[in-house]
């Protein structure tokens, strides 16, 4: 295991913990004002991190050398904002141990994008991975009744719809970030900082009108969550820069297992064994999808 794998594992642990902390301590607050506070804090926290980790010999001016690169950078930033908002709404409205496995099926959406846009070949193991991850979705939604009822619930239950939509958006974001960090070789701090700025730009127009809905006692916690977000985003970008995206993505999205375990232990959410099994199936499935 090299340093890139360690970055990806650390990102998964931190992301999973973040989801549970959000649900436990901030899940009752309006999502958009919360995002304004957290990502505004994250931008401030990340400024010294970005300065310290900026690569030697790279000037900010001239880093983005083409209109295409600039467009991809802005698109990734704004899409990240929408994806984060949708995913937090899913966690806010549903149980984290149910929502997380669905929201972390990101590689299942990355795969068809790469096949269609980048010409990636779909191998037998990837087909198996899709089937295994689909089984995880089925198990997460299974209660009793008709054979197709779990799929029907996943497509009609609002938190599940939001979680899957968020995963699809993150799929587009991950492919774009891969291009930015690998093909275009943009500095990690630039990609992370603009990603945080994009999330703030998406949440600010709606969140600023309801910011007074956040009690003052929540401010210190929100600032602390901003630090966690800054560290998580930097660690994730380092993983994507250091090892192939096809390896980093399934490790990072294993955060679903972390969220399910912590959600079951700390939030006392129901159906813990079933949801743990579903999250493990989803993680194994996305891992197989990512194999080349």
UniProtKB/TrEMBL annotation:
Give the signal sequence positions.
Answer: none
Where primarily located? membrane
Recorded GO cellular component terms are: membrane
Pfam families assigned: EamA (PF00892)
Q: From the Swiss-Prot or TrEMBL record, state where the protein is found.
A: Membrane
Instruction: Give the residue spans that cross the bilayer.
Output: 6-22, 34-54, 69-90, 102-119, 125-142, 154-173, 185-206, 218-241, 247-267
In this protein, which residues make up the domain named EamA? 4-141, 162-290
Bilayer disposition of the protein? Multi-pass membrane protein
Keyword terms of this UniProt record: Membrane, Transmembrane, Transmembrane helix
Q: Which InterPro entries match?
A: AA-Vitamin_Transporters, EamA_dom, EmrE-like
Official protein name in the record: EamA family transporter
